[in-house]
Write a structure and sequence with these properties.
This protein has 139 residues and is α+β, with helices and mostly antiparallel strands. The chain has five helices and seven strands; from the N terminus they run αβββαββαβααβ. About 8% of the residues have low confidence.
């Protein structure tokens, strides 16, 4: 059973540097969670990174999921090392209530907001090689 404890998550993912936290999202029918994901192949921790959040979607409405967060666990399944497509399928087939453990390594604004402010995110630059060689999946 999924245990919502920060200490448990830290013990499970000792190599994770940053803020580990859990979100519980209630799927919104056929719309899914409103996330676009991409595999992270550039860091030692091989998770799935959120590269887009649908405005008004389930994840956006939660207010807790941010662009650049790394998905480490979906319900009871650790997704580190899993392919992007496998995680997309796992999220799509998950029950209506989805528990996700996320890692936030940086405070990152949505890239559209950054562009408006004339900023470039260090995280985006760091993840750019991954994005250029991957396909975004929306879940």
């Amino acid at each position: 059973m999924f245990t919502p404890s920060a200490l448990t998550h830290r013990a499970e993912f000792p190599e994770a540097e940053g803020h580990l936290f859990e979100v519980r999202l209630q799927k919104g029918g056929k719309a899914g969670l409103g996330l676009s994901i991409v595999a992270n192949t550039t860091q030692s921790l091989r998770g799935i990174v959120i590269m887009g959040i649908q405005q008004g979607g389930v994840a956006d409405q939660s207010g807790r999921v941010k662009w650049g967060d790394m998905i480490l666990k979906v319900n009871d399944t650790c997704v580190i090392g899993m392919s992007q497509q496998a995680v997309q399928e796992l999220l799509a087939k998950a029950p209506p209530t989805v528990h996700i453990v996320l890692l936030r390594q940086h405070t990152v604004e949505d890239p559209q907001e950054q562009q408006l402010k004339g900023k470039v995110s260090d995280l985006f630059v760091f993840l750019l090689p991954t994005v250029l060689h991957s396909t975004l999946y929306t879940v």
